[in-house]
Amino acid sequence: MGKPAAVVLGATGRIGRLLQLCPPEGMALRLQARRAQAGPGDRAADWHVLDPLADPDALARLAAGADSILCLAGPVPGRGPGNGAGEMQDHIRLGEAAVRAGAAAGARVLLASSAAVYGAGSGLLDEDAPLRPANAYGAAKAGMEAAAAALGAELGVPVCALRIGNIAGFDAVLGGWRPGFRLDRFADGRSPRRSYTGVQALARVLGALLQLPDLPGALPGALNLAQPGAVEMAALLRAAGRPFAWSPAPEGAIPEVALDTTRLQALLPFALAPADPAAMAAEWAALEPDMAGR
């Protein structure tokens, strides 16, 4: 009997590359791309070139026999073409395509959503908090969640939307750092505090979720994905040895936004250490050269 298999749609993005560098033990990954992939970082990768929207039959063939489908595909704001509000609707279409493939294969579907679906909400946000996206990306992700959940219910496919918080190294602070970088400073002298996940911790959690027992209700409809506790952005940059300057926080800036991880911790009680800026900075330092393709 072979390894359990997971299809990864949109595997050429940063999270897809992370899963290639830190693959889940005991699971085969089938990686989808729209163009042929080659290069040192893609050695021994099981690539499948197809367009999930233009060729649903090819997607169904790729998913045949798979246990899970992880949909990472979709345009990312600020990077390349496909960032207008209309093109952001591809998130919805891709989520539905993943659910239809899951129905054909008898596989469950995990969708990469985002904490952006909560919009400007402050405090501790659990999965039942109202969704009030403040931009086209968050609105598209919220629309994807709703459409995929409805289609999944119709077709009998378990669907879980992973609302991923900041990822240390993929974010605008540690990942976006440049000389002269500035951070907002609030009246209490602190920088913004947000929910974060280290890159290696993220890979472990995704691998564990893909391999949860296939039981009814094993995965909820939505799941916040972050390490427990909020991280101060200044602490993350200091831990990474990245200098920065201060700017007064603008009016309306939110000091703290944290994702409630109670549901995730109940599912994976041993997989998530509390958020630690030093550990997150070290995880990024270890993987940054390979993530950059050097």
Explain how this protein is built:
- This protein is an alpha/beta fold.
- Helix content is 31%, strand content 20%.
- The chain is built from eight helices and 14 strands.
- The chain has helices spanning 14-21, 56-63, 90-105, 136-155, 199-210, 233-239, 262-267, 277-291, and strands spanning 5-9, 28-33, 47-49, 68-71, 108-114, 123-125, 159-164, 166-167, 182-185, 193-197, 222-225, 230-232, 245-248, 256-259.
- The protein has a seven-stranded parallel beta sheet with strand order 3-2-1-4-5-7-11, with helices on both faces. Strands 6, 8, 10, 12 and 14 form a five-stranded mixed beta sheet that branches. Strands 9-13 form a two-stranded parallel sheet.
- The radius of gyration is 19 Å and the shape is globular.
- The two termini are 37 Å apart.
Tally of strands: 14
Question: How do the strands line up in the largest sheet?
Answer: 3-2-1-4-5-7-11
Category by helix and strand content: alpha/beta
Rg (C-alpha, Å): 19 Å
Report how far apart the termini are.
37 Å
Principal-axis shape: globular
Q: Taking all residues together, what is the mean pLDDT?
A: 91
- What portion of the residues fall into strands of 2 or more residues? 15-25%
The largest sheet, given as strand count, sense and whether it forms a barrel, is: 7 strands, parallel
Poorly predicted spans? none
Task: Report the total helices.
Answer: 8
Which H/E pattern describes the elements? EHEEHEHEEHEEEEHEEHEEHH
| Helical content (DSSP H or I, runs of 4+) | 25-40%
